[in-house]
């Protein structure tokens, strides 16, 4: 199991490098296939040996080889986070190959939309559509009996956040609604604790901002996508345990 997790970690590093490209280009309407990556400061094409996940950033001491301008640490952090999520997914879902495949696609999607939402306050439809198609395809092949539950979970999660968006449009966008629906497709019943964790985390951050800034904090918008992503990870890795604990306790 440990070797598989190590391989998954390396795969996550590589996928994380690609996700940073997706998160940068998709919201801008650019192709994710080409051209090759260029330095955002001076426009020089980045050599392959300077584009190795994490390693290149460390060797370059966080600065571009071409111009010396600092490279944002979000790139190696994204790669490390996705590597850790890949390894955790393999370890937790070891006995369920179809769930591993779904989990890897899911966490990749969550990291991508977290980046876009933090940077541009956007959760791109293209990313969600690709994720939904892949999720349904993998479930149809590996666990077709789960499709009705996944469809119900998607409708319930998306519907709940849609009602929240209608009640408080400044605090919830339709991108969040669609992300919640996609989470339901991947998580099934485990989307319930995922949404709960997202709402609790978002509320705690909101209360902290109010405590710090007073009434003025109410005018500050914060993206909800990252909180949904956090809840999605919890639902994926610990959703069954949380539901079983709740049912046995209450």
Label this structure with key terms.
mainly alpha
Describe the protein in words.
The chain is mainly alpha-helical and 250 residues long. It has 2 domains: 1-83, no CATH class; 93-250, no CATH class. Helices cover 69% and strands 0% of the residues. The chain has helices at residues 2-25, 55-59, 74-92, 97-120, 125-142, 147-167, 174-187, 191-213, 225-249. Helix 7 crosses helix 9 (225-249). The two termini are 35 Å apart. 37% of the residues are buried.
Described by strand count, sense and barrel closure, the largest sheet is: none
Q: Based on CA inertia axes, which overall geometry fits?
A: globular
C-alpha termini separation: 35 Å
Classify the helix fraction into a percent range: 55-70%
Uncertain spans: none
Q: Specify Rg, calculated over alpha carbons.
A: 19 Å
Mean pLDDT, nearest integer? 90
* Structural class assignment: mainly alpha
Question: What fraction strand?
Answer: under 5%
Number of helices: 9
List strands and helices in order, with pairings.
Elements: H1 2-25, H2 55-59, H3 74-92, H4 97-120, H5 125-142, H6 147-167, H7 174-187, H8 191-213, H9 225-249
Helix pairs in contact: 1-3, 1-4, 3-4, 4-5, 4-9, 5-7, 6-7, 7-8, 7-9, 8-9
